[in-house]
Amino acid sequence: MPVSHPDPIWVTDNDTLATYCTQWLKLDAIALDTEFIRTDTFYPKPGLIQLGTGQEVFLLDPLKIDNWQPFAQLLGSEQVVKVLHACSEDIEVFHILSGNKPAAIFDTQLAASYAGLGHSLGYQNLLKTLLGVDLPKDATRSDWLQRPLTDIQVSYATLDVVHLLEVYQLLQQRLKPMPHWNWLLEDCSNLSNGDLYPKPEEQWKEVKRAWQLRPRQLCVLKVLAEYREREARRSNVPRNRVIPRGSLWPLARYMPDNIHSLSAIQDMRHSNIRHYGEEVLSLIEMARELPGEQHPKPLPAPLPKAAKEHGQRLKRYTSQKAEELNLPVELLMLGKILTPMLRSRLEYGLFKLPEQLQGWRRTVFAEPMVEQLNQPEQ
Questions:
Q1: Which alpha helices (DSSP H) does the chain contain, by range?
Q2: Any catalytic annotation for residue 33?
Q3: In the listed set 294, 323, 340, which residue is the last one of a domain according to the structure?
């Protein structure tokens, strides 16, 4: 189907935004999308906000609007559904502009997965599948902070929300008669309620091979990983601009005490050392002197080969249940619960569910799974 769209309405001042927000608050649903740049910053730089009502498309200019309070009220309304596609970074942009995260989210990528259209389906493919619309992607990586935007950019941005409410209606029709509908709404609600950024004090646990380090080295790793996260946010620079990810483990392992030895650490560039070298050395010295009671507990080693058989049992059950529920396997077994379950089986002889697994996955899928798998094998 050839692509076409209405001429967008530009919103470029505070009063106009406030007036339209009053109107949009009366709607049942709006389509939203964002364009931004994140090449040399920790936080995305908002370049454009697109809003569709089904009849009209509005382009909100964050370079000219500086009072986003009316938009924050719209985002927070539980009565107006906000329809987005793969919305995690959009939520971040909204929070930066307005201080608010959208309530009543409907994520069409998530809904498409529940509807059996494919897991992590891109918007372009979703439109092709549901509407037969071929959406061009010519402007994806362009400069959204330039003004004026090119005609291609404006067309691309407009098309991103023109069909979104139509997709929402079609997915609703498919899913509402199914139990999947309430599960989808639960997942969409969690998108609004989750943390935007990881906890700085927990970042050391994500470093590869951290389990190999001794307690004093782990103390250095924890201090440096937390500093890296906090400093990247404070300075609004990419994390690797502060300390490259590949440098964290060798810094903790070898604990350099001067600039020369620091420069020998893997991935440490001259720019890292020039801007942050003295602080990194100071933190290493401080962390290595902390008393033993302040050292982190060692992380467990990777799962042994003995876990493979138990992992296969989990995967077989998950595949059978996914087929029974007509859902993608990825929606059932979230990666973050697999390893804790296998560790519990090796340590206690039983599969146990991690506390963080809640909601429909726990009651519909995980609790019956552990009950069955914990029975003595025949």
A1: 14-24, 69-76, 88-98, 108-114, 123-131, 151-162, 164-175, 180-193, 215-235, 239-242, 245-254, 259-263, 270-288, 307-325, 329-332, 335-348, 360, 367-373
A2: yes
A3: 294
Sign, CA dihedral 21-30-150-120, equals: positive
13 is catalytic: no
Longest dimension (CA), the chain: 72
As given in the structure block, the two tokens for residue 142 are: 């362009």
- Of 20, 114, 123, 156, the active-site residue reads 156
Residue 116 lies in a domain: yes
Whether residue 369 has pLDDT greater than 70: yes
Out of 20, 107, 123, 160, the active site residue is 160
To the query of whether residue 90 is one of the catalytic residues in this protein, the response is: yes
Per-residue pLDDT reduced to its tens digit, 193-248: 888 999 999 999 999 999 999 999 999 999 999 999 999 999 999 999 999 999 99
166 catalytic? Reply is: no
Residue 92 belongs to domain with CATH number: 3.30.420.10
Active site residue 35: yes
pTM of the predicted model, to two decimals? Answer: 0.92
